[in-house]
From TrEMBL:
<dbReference type="InterPro" id="IPR013341">
    <property type="entry name" value="Mandelate_racemase_N_dom"/>
</dbReference>
<dbReference type="InterPro" id="IPR036849">
    <property type="entry name" value="Enolase-like_C_sf"/>
</dbReference>
<dbReference type="Pfam" id="PF02746">
    <property type="entry name" value="MR_MLE_N"/>
</dbReference>
<protein>
    <submittedName>
        <fullName>D-galactonate dehydratase family protein</fullName>
    </submittedName>
</protein>
<dbReference type="InterPro" id="IPR034589">
    <property type="entry name" value="D-mannonate_dehydratase-like"/>
</dbReference>
<dbReference type="InterPro" id="IPR034593">
    <property type="entry name" value="DgoD-like"/>
</dbReference>
<feature type="domain" description="Mandelate racemase/muconate lactonizing enzyme C-terminal">
    <location>
        <begin position="129"/>
        <end position="257"/>
    </location>
</feature>
<dbReference type="Pfam" id="PF13378">
    <property type="entry name" value="MR_MLE_C"/>
</dbReference>
<dbReference type="InterPro" id="IPR029065">
    <property type="entry name" value="Enolase_C-like"/>
</dbReference>
<dbReference type="InterPro" id="IPR013342">
    <property type="entry name" value="Mandelate_racemase_C"/>
</dbReference>
<dbReference type="InterPro" id="IPR018110">
    <property type="entry name" value="Mandel_Rmase/mucon_lact_enz_CS"/>
</dbReference>
<dbReference type="InterPro" id="IPR029017">
    <property type="entry name" value="Enolase-like_N"/>
</dbReference>
């Protein structure tokens, strides 16, 4: 068994996706998501120019060896571009291994640990009443968990609120749009949002919220404490997480659960957060954290420290990543929850897949491998269309975190 082809497919069925397709000498193919929102072409070049040529002739069964070869061989280790490229290779090789074994990948990861993968959807609106109506739609669809994001009074726009419903695409312009931010206004709004959700939907619905890296630890501590009476399922990305020990301050002040990690790309980004139990959920993903092989290492470290999984699942992670995530989610012992921002119908046509939503759960495909393909002819009709994530400034014009 040898790799005879490794090609990068770039398509934009409403948003950009980068996909790696590996083919063996026996005609077996595997897919890996390589999408890095706003920096897609950097990963395309990393794969096309520096990785794919080195894969030709290798044994696709040697997943771990190829992972180590690409990680150690880069010399310049880690980082979102490198680890997304390695992730795509790793994911495609697990897809191939499942097809050769004639099993869905979760069977190769230890088999089913649960009946289904609990997911959460995204309810958002400019006003709190609008958010409540969106939450009602998700409850009606059978979701047991919903993320809530509302506009901040006095601000023209904010993270997580868009005209789109059921999915949310933040990369909205060829040059980054500039948002304005006010922490005091925001800190006043969020407790009102949670009070309204609990008032209308009661205590049992899991309610999540994404702060999106915008507070200082003491502000996050204040927000966490102000929400305790509404028992959030989690408060996500309360502060930028380069200073992992900074989370100690939040931990000392509040019991509100913390989720972090969608921007992490290796175990080293979260090693202290996990081993000191500074977080409750780790949000690392197949596509950005080195693939299934590395993600399992992060999740195993988390399992030893009472930290559960809560992988990122936004629309800029393709159905290839979602398919792979569900196989990991089904098998790991310390599963927490899976984000599920639905893709557009056109995206689902470009990436036919076997996962399905039912009564608040996602179920991965039972097909051998990951259970996802790419319609290359259809993908070819939608060329890359540059789009950037917004940037954020404070009301005095200072750069802030988006
Ligand atoms: C967000 C994402 O889903 C989330 O939790 O943080 O929407 C994130 O902003 C995008 O994936 C960035 O590309
Ligand atoms: Mg987030």
């Amino acid at each position: 068994m040898r790799i005879i082809d490794a090609k990068v497919i770039v398509t934009c069925p409403g948003r950009n996706f980068v996909t790696l397709k590996i083919t063996t000498d026996e005609g077996v193919t595997g897919l890996g998501d390589a999408t890095l929102n706003g920096r897609e072409l950097a990963v395309v070049s990393y794969l096309r120019d520096h990785v794919c040529p080195l894969l030709i002739g290798r044994d696709p069964a040697r997943i771990e060896d190829i992972w180590q070869y690409l990680y150690r061989g880069a010399y310049w280790r880690r980082g979102p571009v490198t680890m997304t490229a390695i992730a795509a290779v790793d994911t495609a090789l697990w897809d191939i291994k499942g097809k050769y074994a004639g099993m869905p990948v979760y069977q190769l990861l230890g088999g089913r640990s649960r009946d289904g993968v609990t997911v959460y959807g995204h309810a958002n609106g400019e006003s709190i009443p609008e958010v409540l109506d969106e939450v009602a739609r998700y409850v009606e669809l059978g979701y047991k968990a919903v993320r809530v994001q509302a506009g901040v009074p006095g601000l023209a726009s904010t993270y997580g609120v868009s005209a789109d419903k059921m999915f949310y695409e933040p990369a909205d312009a060829r040059r980054p749009t500039e948002n304005t931010w006010s922490t005091p206004q925001y800190l006043r709004m969020v407790p009102e949002l949670f009070a309204a959700v609990r008032e209308r939907f009661g205590p049992d619905l899991h309610v999540l919220h994404d702060v999106h890296h915008r507070l200082t630890p003491i502000e996050a501590a204040r927000l966490g404490a102000s929400l305790e009476e509404y028992h959030p399922f989690w408060l996500e990305d309360p502060v930028p997480a380069e200073l992992q020990e900074g989370f100690r301050l939040i931990r000392q002040q509040t019991t509100t659960p913390i989720a972090v990690g969608e921007v992490f790309n290796s175990i080293w980004d979260c090693q202290r957060l996990i081993t000191e139990q500074l977080i409750d959920y780790i949000r690392t993903t197949v596509v950005h954290a080195g693939g299934i092989t590395h993600l399992r290492r992060i999740f195993d470290l988390a399992a030893l420290h009472h930290v559960r999984t809560g992988s990122h699942g936004a629309t800029d992670l393709s159905p290839v990543c979602m398919s792979a995530a569900l196989h990991v989610d089904l098998a790991v012992p310390n599963f927490g929850i899976q984000e599920y921002m639905r893709h557009s119908t056109l995206t689902d046509e470009v990436f036919p897949h076997g996962y399905r939503f039912e009564d608040g759960y996602l179920h991965p495909s039972e097909e051998p491998g990951l259970g996802v393909e790419i319609d290359e002819e259809l993908a070819g009709r939608y060329p890359y269309d540059p789009a950037y994530l917004p940037v954020n400034r404070l009301t005095d014009g200072s750069m802030h975190n988006w």
